[in-house]
Amino acid sequence: MPERLDAFLAHQGLGTRSEVRNLIRSGLVTVGGAVCRNQAAHLRNEAVTVRGRPVVAGPDSATLLVHKPLGLACSHDPREAPLLESLYPAPLLHLPIEPAGRLDRDTSGILICTSDGQLIHRLTNPKQAVWKRYRIGYAGKLSAHAVERCTAGLILPDEERPTLPARLELHAEGEATLHLCEGRYHQVRRMFAALGGEVLRLHRDRIGGLELPEALKTGECREMTEAEIAALFNQ
């Protein structure tokens, strides 16, 4: 289907609609070898350049497997930099990629980042019951019945609805694993606070049936395979 020139340039990451329209009006854009000042011109297969450089259409969608390091914010607000999107490959920056469930700046681990809104819904809707596994280092002494309380559901401060049943595993002193099938704001940290502890280290290493690959090093990302996407829902 033909696409408007201004929409095409914006989708390829050349700027906002307003910015690319200024480029077009300034005569910096050519279509089929001729300067085009018509922002509403419909493209078919013509070659497009901006300031003499060819603009090549990028992919229409992408789903990335990301190993988030500490220190990055899952935000698009430049005031919160450094941002997670700094890890995305340059040819994909024109896409509306969002993380399917955020990790805070002080949490590392596996993230699925995608332009597929339906996939985000499937991964984040508690009714889908996609479990996530968190490795935790904590300080303090947990409630004597911490495991049972997580199984039953906790009432968190300022909330009336208890958390969904979760699976808590206690290991050596100060080490634990928590399995959740929902993702409330700072949920792991708030649950441990309710149990008498303080989270010092937090790392997510599994979503559904997909474990964070050992080969994907901290700060790396790549496009997911169909088998990996299927594994997310094979629990």
Question: Any overview of this molecule?
Answer:
The longest helix has 9 residues. The chain has 235 residues and is an alpha+beta fold. It folds into three domains: 52 residues, RNA-binding S4 domain (Structural Genomics Hypothetical 15.5 Kd Protein In mrcA-pckA Intergenic Region, Chain A), CATH 3.10.290; 85 residues, Alpha-Beta Plaits; 77 residues, Alpha-Beta Plaits. The protein is elongated and about 75 Å long. The strands form three sheets. Strands 7, 8, 9, 10, 11, 12, 13, 14 and 15 form a nine-stranded mixed β-sheet that branches. It has a four-stranded antiparallel β-sheet with strand order 3-2-5-6. A two-stranded antiparallel sheet has the order 1-4. The mean pLDDT is 94. It has six helices and 15 strands. Strand 2 and strand 3 form a beta hairpin. 19% of the residues lie in helices and 27% in strands.
Element layout with pairings:
Layout (H helix, E strand, L loop, with lengths): L2 E2 H7 L5 H9 L3 E3 L2 E2 L6 E2 L4 E3 L2 E2 L8 E6 L29 E2 L8 E7 L2 H8 L7 E9 L5 H7 L14 E4 L4 E6 L6 H8 L2 E11 L2 E2 L9 E3 L2 H6 L4
Parallel strand pairs: 9-13
Antiparallel strand pairs: 1-4, 2-3, 2-5, 5-6, 7-9, 7-15, 8-9, 10-12, 10-13, 11-12, 13-14
Helix pairs in contact: 1-2
